[in-house]
Amino acid sequence: MAQRVAGSDGGSKKTSRVRVAVRLRPYMCGQDDPSEQPCVRGLDSQNLEIINWRNAMETVKYHFDVFHGEQTTQQEVFLTSVKPILPHILNGQNASVFAYGPTGAGKTHTMLGTGEQPGVIPRAVREVFNLVRAKDKAQDDGWNYSVGMSYMEIYNEKVLDLLSPNSPDLPIREDKDKNILIPGLTHTTLSSFSDFEKLFVPATLNRTTASTKLNQRSSRSHAILLIKVVRTQRSLPHRQQTGKLYLVDLAGSEDNRRTGNQGIRLKESGAINLSLFTLSKVVDALNSGTAVRVPYRDSKLTRLLQDSLGGSAHSVMITNIAPEYKYYFDTFSALNFAAKSKLIVNKPFTRETVAVPVLPVKRSREEHEAAGSGTEPNKKKQKDEKKPEQDGSSHSTNYNSLTELSVMERLIALEKRMMSCQDRDGQSVLQDVAESRREIQELKEKQMEFERKALLLSQLAKEKSSSTEEPVFDNTSAPLQRKRPNVTKLVKQQAVVQPLQVSQRQPLQQLPVKKQSVCVIKKEKKLSGLVELPDGKENPKGVAMGFQLDESVLDQSKEKILHILNTGCLKDLKGLQQIGDKKAKLILGWREINGPFIKLEDLMNIEGMSEKRFSSFVKTNILSSLGK
Ligand SMILES: Nc1ncnc2c1ncn2[C@@H]1O[C@H](COP(=O)(O)OP(=O)(O)OP(=O)(O)O)[C@@H](O)[C@H]1O
User: Atom 11 of ligand 1 has which residue's CA nearest to it?
Assistant: First the structure.
C-alpha cells in the first residue's frame, strides 16, 4: 500500500509560504463605459496599484510574487505560476493551485480556459504526462509511475463526486500519516492526456453553476480536480510514493448586494463565503509561520486541502481581479486578502500620492479629512482647490449638497451608488446621491413635524393632569429628543424597573401617537421582542405598570443598529455599546468576507459573540438609540 515517506526535506513540519499571483482580466466587451479608466493597473511584473476609495487622489500599492496584466496569455500564467511546482508531485510531494477572486473576475477562465485558450488545468495535466514520460524514458530513474484522477465539487459544504454525479455527500478522513482521504470518491487511472479529456469535459458539466447579476454562468461550488501520481520502485524494497496535485477553481467571493442573490443563491453564497473566509484564515496562519493552530477543520474546503496547503506542499494562489469600477470594492477586498496571504515586502497599505488622470468621483475636502487618509499638505491643497467647485458647475452643486450629510452617510451613499449604477457615469452617480440626500431631508422634515405635534400634545396633557401629580421629568422642552443622561438617570432611580420601562407617570403615556415612540400598556408583562430581562426571566419584582415598546419602534432601532453594522467604519462600530476595538475589527472582517449582515442575529457568527452577549448587546443598543 502507498505510504507517505519523508521527502528530500526530511518531511519536516515546516510550513511553506503560499505563492500569490494576481491576474487582472481585460475589460469585457460591452461592459461599462469604454472610455472609463480602470480602477486598478499593473506597475511591473510584481506590483500593482488601485485607487484609494477613501481618497481618489491616492492609490494603494501592492506587491505580489507575480502580477499578470491584462495582456498576459494563458501560457504565460501557466509557465510562470504553475509549471515550476509540478515536478514535486513526481517525488511524492503535494501541490495545489487555486484560483480565487470575485465573481466574474476570470477564475474559471484561468483554470479551465477555452478550446482555443486552454487554462491551467489542461496544461498542468498535459505537463504531468510529459514529466512522467520523460522519467519513464530515463534509464537510471528506477521507478514506475502511474497517474490517476478524481474530480469533485464542494457545494453548500457537501463533497460531491463529479465523476459519479448521483453519489451522496462524501466524508473526509485523515489517516495516521496525516494524508487526507475521501472514502467512496471515484479515482480513475489515466494512461494518457486524451483519457483525461474524455472524463474531465463531461464531468465539468455536472458542476453546479447558475446565473447571477454579475456572471451568467457563475460557479456556485468549489471545483477540485485531484491528480495523483504514484511512483513505485522497480527493485526491492519496492517503495511507493504518492504525490497529489489539487487544481481548484473556487466559487467567487460574493457581495450579495451586487449579485442580487436571494433564496437558494443566498444560502449557497453563505457557504461559499464561509469557506473562503476559512481559507483566508488558513493561508494567513500558514504564511505567518507562527500560528499555533491552522484552522483547516473549519470548512470542508480547507479540510480537504489540508495535506496540500502548508506543510511540505507547494501552493500557488492566483487571485483574479477585474478592472471595471463596478468591481472596485470586490477587487479591493480580494487584493487585501491576497496581500494578507503572503509576506508583504512593502507595507500593504502604504499610500503614495500619484497623479490620477481621470477621477470618476470627486470627493469633498471634508470627506478626505474625515476618511483620515490624506496627508496634511494634501488636505490644505484640497481645501484651496475646492473653492471654484463651490461656485458653480452642476457637478459641484450636487456634490456640495452632500456636505451637510454625515461623512458616513456620504460614504455609504457613494458606495451604494457606485455599486448599484453599473453602467452609469460619475455625473449620474452624483445626481443619485443628491436624490438620496433629498429623501433623507424629507424624512427629517417629517420627523420634525411629528415632534412638534408630540410637543403640543404633551403640553395639553400636562395642563390636564392633576396638580398633585408631578411629572417624573419635564417633557415639555424637547419631546422625543431627550438626552441620554436623562435616560440613565431614570434607569438608576428605578433599579427594579427593567430596561425600556419607564414610570406610568411619564407624560409621554398620554401621547396618542403610536408609531413614533412608546405607548403605555396597563399590564405587567415582559417587553416584546428582544427586550427581555438579562437572565431571560420575567420581571421579578412585578412592577405595577410597565411600558411596552411599540413593535415599530423596536424594529426601527434594530434597523438602525443593523445599518451601522453594515456600513459603519471602525469608529462608528466602536460607537455601538459593547463593541470595542477587537469586536469592531472582527465585524469589519466578517463584513468584508461575507457581505452585509442580513439580520442582527448574524452577529453571533462573530468570534466571542455568544447568544447571551448578543442579547445584551441588542438591549443596550436599543436603549442607547432610544436615549438619543
Ligand atoms: N483573461 C481573460 N481574457 C479574456 N476573457 C476573460 C479573461 N478572464 C475572464 N474572461 C471572461 O470573463 C468572463 C467571466 O470569467 P469567469 O467565468 O472565468 O469568471 P469567474 O471568476 O470564474 O466567475 P464565477 O466566480 O462567477 O464563476 C467570461 O466570459 C470569461 O471568458
Answer: 106
